[in-house]
Amino acid sequence: MALGEVILTVLAHRSMTGYEIARNFDRTLSWFWRASHQQIYRELARLGRGKCVSFRVVPQQGKPDKKVYAITLRGRSELKRWIAEPTDQPNPRYDLLVKILASSLLDRKALRPEIDRVETTTTSILAQLQTMLRECIARPLGKLSPYDQALYLALRRGLLLVEAQRAWLNEVKDYLDSGRLKE
Amino acid sequence: MALGEVILTVLAHRSMTGYEIARNFDRTLSWFWRASHQQIYRELARLGRGKCVSFRVVPQQGKPDKKVYAITLRGRSELKRWIAEPTDQPNPRYDLLVKILASSLLDRKALRPEIDRVETTTTSILAQLQTMLRECIARPLGKLSPYDQALYLALRRGLLLVEAQRAWLNEVKDYLDSGRLKE
DNA sequence: GCCGACATGTAAAGGGTTACATGATTTT
DNA sequence: AAAATCATGTAACCCTTTACATGTCGGC
What we know:
homodimer; mainly alpha; 3 strands; DNA-binding
C-alpha cells in the first residue's frame, strides 16, 4: 500500500521519469524501500488515475519519448495525510532466525557457513553506510538541505542497526564455537 | 518461499495441527515470522503434496476432527538443505524512514506524534523481549535444550536491535527539538 | 557485432491480506 | 444470550517477483 507514498515522496523531491525513479530506488532509496521498475510503472499509472501525479511527454532524439512525472497538489495533500497517519511497524521475516532454530533440531554444524556469509554482507553494508554518511558530513551538517538532513538521520538508523547486528553475530559465533551462552 | 520451511521447523520441534501452528506463530514465533491461519493451511496442503509432511486425523468428541501434522523424512532433508543454502537478506521496507524524508519536504511538524507513537511501541516490545529472555535464564543457560538455547540467541537479536532503534529514536527527537544534527 | 544504458510496458505465477463460512463447546 | 475458543477451510483481491517484449544509441 505504501509504495504509492514512497513514489510521491520521490516526486515531491524532484520530478522524474519512471525509469529515473527506479534507478533512484537502486541507489539511495534502496536503504528504505525496494521496488522493481514494473511495480513503479504500475503504481505511477494508478497514482495518475487518482490525480496524485501528472506527467508531460518529453520527446527525445534517438531515444524513446519519456514521461516526466510530477506530484500534483492533490498528491501533496495525500502525502501529508499519510505522514500523520500511524505507521504499523513491519512484521519481522528473517530466514536466519528460523535457520538457527531449525539447525538446533536437525544439524548443528550446518549453520556456521551461513553465519559467516551473513557476517560478510553485514560488514559490507556497514562500510557502504559509513561511506554515505561520511559524504554527508563532508560539508557541515547544519548547511545540509532539510531533505539531506532527513536522509542523514534515516541512514543513521541503518548504521546503528547494522552495528547491533554485528554485535549479535559475535554472540552467535561465540555460542557456535564454545557451545555456551553468555549473560 | 520460506513459509514452508518455517512450518517444517515448527513441526520438526513437535507435531501439531494447523490451528496450533497458527497459535504458535502468535506467541513465540511471531518474533521471527508472522502468518495467518489461511496461509498456514494453504502451505500445509502444499507441503503434503510435496510429501514433506503427513497427517493423521484425530477424532474428538464435541469438537471437529483435527489433523495432526508431522514432518516426514523427506521434509527433514529438505529442511537441512535449506539451512545450508545462502539466505538473501530481507529488503528493508520501513514506512517511518520514508515519512522522515517526506516530512522534511512537506510538513516538518507532522512527524513528531508519529515518532512518539513508535517510541511507545518500541518500549513495549523491549519490555516483552526482556520478560521472555528473563524467563529463559530462570534456569541456568547451560541446562536449556538446544532448541531453547537457539530461541534465546534469536531473541537476543531482537533485544539488541530494539535497543539500537531506541538510541536512534533519541537522535531523531533531539533533531526535531533542536533542528540540529550531531556527530 | 555485442553489450549496456535509456525508456516503457505486458503476462504469469506466487505470496499475503481480508472477508466469508461452518459448527460445537465453554465462559461471561 | 452473547462472546470466545477450537478447528478447518474457500474466495477474492492485491502485491511482489520473474520473465518476456520492444527499440535506439554509444562504447568496446
